[in-house]
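Re: the request from the purification team.
They wanted to know what the chain is likely to look like in 3D before they choose a buffer screen. I agreed to run a prediction and write the result into the notebook, where they can find it.
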Amino acid sequence: MRREHPSRFANAREAKEFLVSKIVEEAQREGVPLSEVERKMLYFSETHWTLPDMMEVNEAFDREYDQQQYEKKIAQFVRHARARARKENRQELEDWKDAIGILSKEDHYILLMLGSARASKGLPLTPLGLVVVLVALSLIVIVAIHSPEPPESSAVIGIPHPHSSRGPLGFYLWCLMTGLAVIYLLLWMLLGRQRVDNVVDKVLGALLR
């Protein structure tokens, strides 16, 4: 039977202290040291262990800092620190994974930044992948336009034909929606879900005002 490697962290507090120390080290390495409030906010939790003065720290943070900018900055430090560990210290990378796994069983603010760091990487998109997606979309549109009768399969996937009883409007609307979906997918793969969703939220918010 395979035996699991014992954790170096006895509890969530030790795991959190390890992660905070690595984030603080990375901030100092990059010449952007965290203030006391920024550092202490990494310990924030509403339901589990945190610092004894966290209520005062949280109030100061709300007054003096932009939460979105703070989370973005911390997520960047996390990405850089883990990338460095991946190249230089595999054991430290394993400690990162171990600490995150322990904290994931509870509710801690730092997990939000750790999740954003992973999500903002996006998916690797090669030039070949981009070409395949665009060619597939083009073929669907060409077939739908030039086929004399709506293919039976089109009824299943909801593709209206320009000469069908629904008229060309439905077809062009479908093309528009499909194009937007493909553009969203490509941006998601290139930039990462978090960044793209933030942009979409801002655009929709501006349109719905």
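For the purification team: The chain is about 70% helix and 0% strand.
Please add any questions underneath this entry.
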